[in-house]
Amino acid sequence: xxxxxxxxxxxxxxxxxxxxxxxxxxxxxxxxxxxxxxxxxxxxxxxxxxxxxxxxxxxxxxxxxxxxxxxxxxxxxxxxxxxxxxxxxxxxxxxxxxxxxxxxxxxxxxxxxxxxxxxxxxxxxxxxxxxxxxxxxxxxxxxxxxxxxxxxxxxxxxxxxxxxxxxxxxxxxxxxxxxxxxxxxxxxxxxxxxxxxxxxxxxxxxxxxxxxxxxxxxxxxxxxxxxxxxxxxxxxxxxxxxxxxxxxxxxxxxxxxxxxxxxxxxxxxxxxxxxxxxxxxxxxxxxxxxxxxxxxxxxxxxxxxxxxxxxxxxxxxxxxxxxxxxxxxxxxxxxxxxxxxxxxxx
Length: 346
Hints:
Elements: E1 6-12, H1 19-31, E2 37-43, H2 50-58, E3 64-68, H3 75-85, E4 90-93, H4 104-114, E5 119-126, H5 132-148, E6 157-164, H6 165-172, H7 181-188, E7 192-198, H8 211-225, H9 232-256, H10 264-297
Parallel strand pairs: 1-2, 1-4, 2-3, 5-7
Antiparallel strand pairs: 4-6, 5-6
Pfam family, one: Glycos_transf_2
Organism: Arthrobacter jinronghuae
Membrane topology: Multi-pass membrane protein
């Protein structure tokens, strides 16, 4: 296979209605870049004729590749499969629904080269085509993610982005299966910049991210990137203990003023005290489970961007365990594990 400067990964799930429109807009943009490229279309177990249409288009568009997953594994899993097989120096991920404009890819590649950055985020500057409910829930999601994963998470940046080969190599070394790339890629800390665009309406077909799947994505984002929920019992136990102290003072005052029913004071103190102790103990267990959770992710403690001894500006292999090429990991083969959407994609 000849060297490619750019790979464009397009996860697809039941996209036959929009496929020809996507090709009509994407191909002229890529042909106009005057660089060797490939388009990796990842069919995520579509039930319609998406894969067959891609095969037909490949006869006239040799740069188009088709990757088919054995079953519907989810949007993030389809992106993982595409990036694992991409061969370009730069990789762009874009959905097939044309809400993110292919025309922005030219600006992304130009910025990555001229500004010497490794990540270019596609940021939605105008979401007026989305419903009010969609805009509000999206704003809440990014607000929450910036507090869970850190302020480095860009607002209104979904899965439309460009990454360099060294970012892709770092991603492919990750051993964890449950991935939310809009959180993982900012976590690396590679130099980045933004390209702003207006979000369009979906060109055809139906949305693959209704409310239920958005909730699942939010849940996946929180539990795979933060042990915060495990500390809820700890703080609830502390709050209960403080409340129990206040109730105890109230009970003692009531006993001395004769305003209590016999047996009431001891019952309240015992029930409140035991409840606070139980919650606090659950919180302690949660702290230990949180450490186990963090350990199972097996993320590298750091990434070396430059080593004068090696005289290279690439990212050396991080100290991560050998995944052994098992299914469901970045280096594995076969069916990739499902994401927050379960049996859905996009």
